Amino acid sequence: MITVTGDFRFNPRALTELAEKTRATERGAAHAVKRVAKSMAPVDTGDLQTSIKAKREAKNQWAVYTETGYGGFVELGTQYQRAQPYMVPAVQIVAYEIGKGTPLKDVK
After folding, report:
1. What are the backbone angles phi and psi of residue 107, rounded to the nearest 5°?
2. DSSP 8-class letter at 72
3. For residue range 21-72, what is the model confidence (pLDDT) as tens digits?
4. At 24, which helix (H) or strand (E)?
5. For position 23, what pLDDT does the model report?
6. Are 56 and 62 in contact (CB under 8 A)?
7. In the predicted model, is pLDDT for residue 73 greater than 90?
8. Cα separation of 71 and 30, whole Å?
9. According to the 3-state scheme, what is the secondary structure of 29-69?
10. How many angstroms separate the CA atoms of 62 and 76, rounded?
11. How far is CA 10 from the centre of its chain?
12. What is the CA radius of gyration of the chain?
């Protein structure tokens, strides 16, 4: 058994700093996914690549999405077109790099 004793006091400044770092990490991760997805997206006209965006949806929630009507069809494929994944692999790459400790600004 481990016993921890001490004088533990609530530190609102530390909590605020932690919240700010968490927001910055969330934002950084979302933008890293956006960068990687743009680099992996297949290019025909370039519309898919340029339509990939990152947006804060709610507290602690970011979305990376495309503004084209066909981004999901490219990602998942259809009965007529093979899948060309770019978004899911981007998330996987960013998660892997975060696990390695790579700074988010360096994830490409």
Report:
1. -75, 125
2. H
3. 778 888 889 999 999 999 999 999 999 999 999 999 988 889 999 999 999 9
4. helix 12-40
5. 80
6. yes
7. yes
8. 17
9. HHHHHHHHHHHHCCCCCCHHHHHEEEEEEECCEEEEEECCC
10. 21
11. 31
12. 19
- Between β-strands 52-58 and 61-66, what pairing exists: parallel, antiparallel or unpaired? antiparallel
Residue that the structure tokens 């990376």 belong to = 64
Token code pair at residue 80: 């007529």
Residues 6+ apart with CB under 8 A from 65: 52, 53, 55, 71
Give me the pLDDT at residue 3, please: 63
Tokens of 64: 């990376």
pLDDT in tens, 90-103: 999 999 988 888 88
Q: How far is CA 56 from the centre of its chain?
A: 11
Distance CA 84, CA 27 (A): 26
| H helix or E strand, kind and range, residue 83 | none
